Amino acid sequence: MSKTIIISNRLPVKITQQNNEYELQVSEGGLATGLGSIYKEGDNIWIGWCGLDVPKEDESRIINELEKENLAPVFLTEDEIKLYYEGFSNETLWPVFHYMSTYAQYDESYWESYKQVNEKFRDAVIALAQPGDIIWIHDYQLLLLPQLIREKLPDTTIGFFQHIPFPSFELFRLIPWRAELLNGMLGADLIGFHTYDDVRHFTSSATRVLPVQTNANTIHQDDRNITIDAFPMGIDAKKFDALSKTEEVRLINDNYNEILGDTKIILSIDRLDYSKGIVQRLLAFEKVLIEHPEYIGKISLHMIVVPSRDTIPQYRDLRDDIDKLVGNINSRFRTSAWHPIHYFYRSFPITELSALYNRANICLVTPMRDGMNLVSKEYVASKTNEPGVLILSEMAGASKELIEAIIINPNNLAEMSNAIVQALEMGKEEQQTRMLSLRQTVLKFDINHWVKIFMDQLKEVKELEKSRYAR
Ligand code: GDG
User: Fold this and answer.
1) Which distant-in-sequence residues (6+ apart) come within 8 Å of 1 by Cβ?
2) How many whole angstroms separate alpha carbon 381 and alpha carbon 137?
3) What is the ipTM of this complex?
4) What integer is the mean pLDDT of 31-40?
5) Which residues line ligand 1 (CB under 6 A)?
6) Taking 80 as the threshold, does the pLDDT of residue 29 lie above it?
7) Which reaction is recorded as catalysed by this protein (predicted)?
8) What is the pLDDT of residues 110-151, one digit of tens each?
9) How many C-beta atoms lie closer than 10 Å to residue 345's C-beta?
10) Which of 50, 101, 139, 229 has the most CB atoms in a 10 Å sphere around its CB?
């Protein structure tokens, strides 16, 4: 019997250590939920780093604990985390793939570690995989893995999905190891991205860097066909819809209403990241207060920034910039009874997020670049009673689907601040019409739909490839 193996840099689990005991908490994130329908079944398994530096003598305990959940760990050393993860993944690939190439480091030691860790993942897969298995690899930390597995198990079915953008060739070509990265990805049978633009950029890079032929969305290399396609990822929309109607969320919102009264809430939620356009968003909000003093005391920006990658200098600098800007705006405009910005640098329980999504009059999602952006979809799914307005950057993959949002260019501060004013003044009826269409999209094309269409196409392209050989 063949099985399915999911592989990602991180396992969908949080492990904490208390009094020499390890505790597992399986993630409730969208990807974990969607892939839950796969990896929790039968002999299927999810392989990834467990997120913890585990002493050698404790490894077997962790392995046993994870096995009960159909999970298998890859253990990474402190050096590997520094060079492969923080280094090559987040200081080389992340900035280039998000069009911030001036932030990129091209460091030979990062690259060496990236290769070694991808080989480590390959060994973990090979230890568990059989030739007929289906393997689904996730994201930019593992670009070399498809080919590494293909070399050992030539007939295996391999899918690869990249969650971040694929940049245009002019950006991608900057990476010294561009050919190796493309060859690594092309070990897959099916390569998926969030949008057709990513598909186009990938195909164009492959044809310019490598001696491959393309035909529509198929790349031909070494007598193999590789299909490249767009699979816009959805969220667990039913969960967000249901959560917003629970008593717990209603009580949190009653509390907000008591504190905030009629103040209109503009919501912003991201991980700390320069790709998310947090500074530009603050400037656009400040512009509204400067140009429309009539809103002073009547609107407030609730900004949640979840700590992330703060060992990397650019992230620490970004945090300082945000702190300063929030301080300046608050001190300039606040009154004794009102704060323009409520800024939180921490993460919140999902019930708090749900209440904020449900209550917010506007959700401001303005990344400079984003593969998809799930926050925009979670806002829509949580809008179960009063409508609201989504302002969305055209640089987010989600803007290709959520076309009833107000779509803006995040580099255009005037356009962004005008969009905020347009949203504040938008009548209920228009809000309702737009939100209804947005909700239809988000509820229909959810995470389960995404998992199904990717898996179906993966099986289909493999069958086609097999029949080509049989002919
Ligand atoms: C990458 C790509 C792509 C945020 N704050 C809290 C919290 N969150 C959750 C949100 C949402 C998730 O984090 C963020 O997802 P995004 O899609 O917005 O962004 P990335 O983390 O950069 O994800 C992105 C995604 O992969 C999937 O392919 O869309 O483009 O960059 O789900 O709800 N969750 C909790 N507390 C918080 O305070 N519990």
Assistant:
1) 42, 43
2) 28
3) 0.99
4) 82
5) 30, 163-164, 233, 269, 271, 304, 306, 347-348, 350, 353, 370-375, 378
6) no
7) D-glucose 6-phosphate + UDP-alpha-D-glucose = alpha,alpha-trehalose 6-phosphate + UDP + H(+)
8) 999 999 999 999 999 999 999 889 999 999 999 999 999 999
9) 15
10) 50
